[in-house]
Design goal:
- The chain is mainly alpha-helical.
- The chain folds into three domains: 92 residues, Dna Ligase, domain 1 (2-Layer Sandwich); 97 residues, no CATH class; 126 residues, no CATH class.
- The protein is 51% helix and 7% strand.
- The protein has 14 helices and six strands.
- It has a two-stranded antiparallel sheet. Strands 3-4 form a two-stranded antiparallel ribbon. Strands 5-6 form a two-stranded antiparallel ribbon.
- A hairpin with a 5-residue loop joins β5 and β6.
- α2 packs across α3, α10 packs across α11 and α11 runs parallel beside α13.
- The protein is flat and about 120 Å long.
- It starts with 8 loop residues before the first helix and ends with a helix.
C-alpha cells in the first residue's frame, strides 16, 4: 500500500512564517520608499520656502537700502526741525520720496550708530544712497533761524492749545478746533499713527478725539504761515517719540496706550511736583485695587466743559463718562495733555498706603490712609479757609 508524501507540520509552519515575513518586508519596503520620497519632497519644499523667503527679504531690504531713483537729477528741499528724533526724520525723508522705507532707514541708522543729525534746511536727491543722505544730515548746519516758536504748556486742553496758536501763529482758533474734530481727518491721522491713535478716540462719548495727544513742548516753525495739518502732525510726532520710548513699559502695564495717556492726564491735572505726581498715581492705583472710584475733581470740571474755581455738591452729580465720581476706574478719555514726569509717575508710581489726598490753598498736597483721616485734613485745610 502506498501514500502521498506530505510536508511535516514544522516545515509548513516555517514556510508560512517565511511567506508572511516576505510580504511584511515587501510592504515595509514600500512604506520606507514612500516615506523617503515624502521627506525628500518636504525638504525640497522647505528649501524652496527658505530660498524664496530669503530672496524676498533680501530684495525688500536691498530696495530699502538702495536709492529711490539712481538716475534722478531732481533736488528736493526739506526741513529737519530742531529736536527731531530718528522716527520723525525717517518719516520726513520717506514722505518726500528720498528713501524707500522709513523703518529700514531707522534700522540702518541704529546699526551704524548714526544719531548726530543736525537740524536745518537740506536739498537732497532721490539718487542719493542712505549713507550719502545720513552724512549730509550729520554734517549739515541750521541755515536759518525759525520764523517763530510756540510753547504749549503741560495740562492744556485742545481748546486752550487752539487759543495759543491763534495768539502766537495767527491760526484761527475755531478753524483749528473744527479740523481736529473732523472725523475723517482724525481717521487719516489714525492711519498715519497706528501705534499712537486707536479706535478709542472715536468713541461717541469722547468730547475731542485728540485731547491729551497734542504734546506740550516748544515748537519751532520755519515758515511764516504753517498749516493746521503741519502743527498737528508736529505735535503728534512729538507725542509718538515720547511715548514710544516707554513702549515696553506700556506693554507690560495693565493699561493700553489710550488708558495710559488718560491716566497721565489725571496725574498732570492733580499734581504740581514730581514727588506728588508719583504719590498721587499711587493713590489712584490703590483705589482701583480696592474697587473704589477715583473721585478726582479735574474730571468733574472737564465734564462740565468750563473753568471752575470751586465745586459744589451739585457739580459732582453731573452724569458724564468723564466724571470719576460717577464712573468706576479711568474716565473715557484724557482730560488734558501731560508732561513726561506725569507719564513716568503713571508707569512707575510710588508705593504708598494712601487712599485719599487733597491740596490746600497754597497747593501743598496732603495724604491720608483712611476716610476719617481725610476728613480731618479737610477740616484743617479746606473748611477753615
Amino acid at each position: 500500500m502506498t501514500s502521498d508524501k506530505k510536508d511535516s507540520p514544522i516545515k509548513n509552519f516555517f514556510k508560512t512564517t517565511y511567506e508572511k515575513y516576505k510580504a511584511i518586508a515587501k510592504e515595509r519596503k514600500k512604506e520606507i520608499s514612500k516615506a523617503r520620497k515624502f521627506i525628500i519632497v518636504m525638504l525640497i519644499v522647505f528649501t524652496l520656502i527658505v530660498v524664496i523667503g530669503g530672496y524676498s527679504s533680501y530684495r525688500y531690504i536691498k530696495a530699502g537700502l538702495s536709492p529711490v531713483d539712481p538716475d534722478s537729477s531732481e533736488n528736493i528741499d526739506i526741513t529737519i526741525p530742531l529736536g527731531s528724533g530718528t522716527s520723525e526724520i525717517a518719516a520726513i525723508l520717506e514722505e518726500n520720496g528720498l528713501i524707500q522705507n522709513s523703518m529700514i532707514y531707522r534700522f540702518y541708522v541704529k546699526f551704524n550708530n548714526s544719531a548726530q543729525f543736525q537740524a536745518g534746511d537740506y536739498s537732497l536727491s532721490p539718487s542719493m544712497t542712505l549713507k550719502e543722505i545720513t552724512n549730509e544730515l550729520e554734517t549739515g548746519t541750521v541755515q536759518e533761524e525759525p520764523v517763530f516758536r510756540v510753547t504749549v504748556p503741560e495740562g492744556n486742553h485742545v481748546r486752550e492749545i487752539a487759543s495759543i496758536y491763534q495768539e502766537e501763529a495767527n491760526i484761527d482758533q475755531e478753524a483749528f478746533l473744527e479740523r481736529v474734530n473732523d472725523k475723517e481727518y482724525v481717521k487719516s491721522l489714525m492711519d498715519r499713527y497706528p501705534d499712537l491713535l486707536s479706535d478709542q478716540i472715536l468713541n461717541e462719548d469722547i468730547r475731542m478725539p485728540l485731547e491729551g495727544y497734542l504734546y506740550p513742548a516748544t515748537y519751532q516753525f520755519y515758515e511764516e504761515n504753517p498749516s493746521i495739518d503741519t502743527i498737528v502732525t508736529k505735535m503728534l510726532d512729538k507725542s509718538r517719540d515720547v511715548l514710544m520710548s516707554y513702549a515696553d513699559q506700556i506693554e507690560e502695564s495693565q493699561f493700553n496706550m489710550h488708558e495710559v495717556i488718560t491716566f497721565a492726564s489725571l496725574v498732570e491735572e492733580e499734581a504740581r511736583s514730581e514727588e506728588d505726581r508719583a504719590l498721587i498715581a499711587s493713590v489712584f492705583y490703590n483705589r482701583m485695587d480696592q474697587d473704589m472710584m477715583l473721585q478726582t475733581d479735574p474730571t468733574v470740571i472737564y465734564a462740565h466743559g468750563e473753568h471752575m474755581e470751586r465745586l459744589n455738591y451739585a457739580n459732582y452729580e453731573i452724569e458724564s463718562p468723564y466724571n470719576t465720581y460717577q464712573v468706576m476706574g479711568l474716565p473715557v478719555g484724557p482730560i488734558a495733555n501731560f508732561g513726561e514726569s506725569s507719564l513716568q509717575a503713571t508707569l512707575n508710581p510710588e508705593s504708598s498706603p494712601y487712599l485719599f489726598f487733597l491740596a490746600d490753598s497754597e497747593g501743598n498736597v496732603h495724604y491720608a490712609r483712611t476716610y476719617e483721616e481725610h476728613q480731618q485734613l479737610e477740616d484743617k485745610y479746606i473748611h477753615n479757609e
